[in-house]
């Protein structure tokens, strides 16, 4: 820390412990200066020789003791004592902690060059410009002390000088940083001393681009706002570094932000959150989506205002694909029966969809048809996040179906290449809301596209008692169609391979052809295994007796939707939801629509031979 000593005479100020200071001298004190509860028994001449203000207050005639009351001197009694000692020529030490107070008090007492050359104001200004403002840490300390001396520090441009000093140093090229700074983050290998010499010469230590972040966290929010604004105005620091600085400052001042459910505060905390939100760089990705969501949680709980809330929601929507499900679980405020604020997330997702559509229009140079254009990668990612969020909030028995449905349909169906996540969310909702009506069940399940369910999801769905019968029939049909189509393609490919082999003049190996046909049969068998799981009716004796017939049936074409439906109707015909009202809505598929298995060409040619 930089410091400056003024004067050469020994300090003879003596205090009695009751805020009374007396100058030890042979001369009797002839002036008493009262500042608040403090009293100073001084002499007129030293004060008149340096302070123009005392020249106005002390009469030129008369030898009586003068009693002067000063109530508004900046810095109070401590700052006045520094000025008084300077008048006596006593040793005074100025540093970053007291220099602003002394400078403001000297201005109040009018200790300028017109009264005496080399007066206190001049000496302090030289000390500030030549020493304090050249030091990184001293500049920060001095800036922190200016708040206690407003508006004097502001009027004397001390605040602006401090801010410019700090912002200029933070914006300088890292190769020119030669002063000490606080840095407790994960350091580069060269900073940890692990770098090896190159060609026998030790490489220069690298200064991280965010070297200045931690030192600024000691500032109050008003000073911090001014510094960050100045750094932004200079335009030399990357936006992500500024975002990281704001994040570090927020966690330093509001450590409970990481556990938002425990955060509490008054108007001061609310004002800080609003200021932090306003300071965030406007560029996408300058701060993480997780941090933005934590801010939103805090502002939502502390009711920081609608403008702050909307600004955060807009920023979150721009990078929603970076969010996690746990980040989106924002608790509701008092008075709501639900656990999580699903309306808030719905608004964010709607804003994301609007922004994504605008970006698509700009990219394509015109209007975009949602039914034709492929979804963006971010839209697909957000759809997965929404499905995961729905699966979590579905566990809340107080979530109404219309809110669940509204959020689910906000993301279009073609944004979900696979509907497994949506299926899991719907199934969880049906499980936690057993009293849901038939029409609401059908409406929810209509959000799913059975063609986009994976084999595992299909296997689960066909055995799911909570789903309407019509949905189960659709799943069975599409799964059987997929299995049969795969078997047909495989059989055709084997046939083509055998045909090409015969044309090459090679000897036909009937065992290899038989193995190829068996591979097709095995494929058909494996594809229909999950569908067979839904058939739990039947005894062990029937299974043992008809094992060969069942295998032959799978080879020829697998389990048809009609067969699976008959088994389900016989075993589940008494279920409440899968009664006559549901089954009447389910279209029984005609037999001519069943995919037929095409025999392998190689088998046909062998038979012909």
TrEMBL record:
Residue ranges, compositional bias (Polar residues): 600-609
Gene Ontology biological process: protein ubiquitination
Record's keyword terms, sorted: Ubl conjugation pathway
Annotated BTB domain residues: 29-96
Domain NPH3, first and last residues per copy: 210-482
Keyword Cell division included in the entry's annotation: no
Pathway the protein contributes to: Protein modification; protein ubiquitination
Gene3D superfamilies from the UniProt entry: Potassium Channel Kv1.1, Chain A
Database matches in Pfam families: BTB, NPH3
Spans annotated as Disordered: 537-609
Keyword Hydrolase among UniProt keywords: no
Family recorded in the similarity comment: Belongs to the NPH3 family.
Name of the featured protein: BTB/POZ domain-containing protein NPY4-like
Species for this entry: Panicum miliaceum
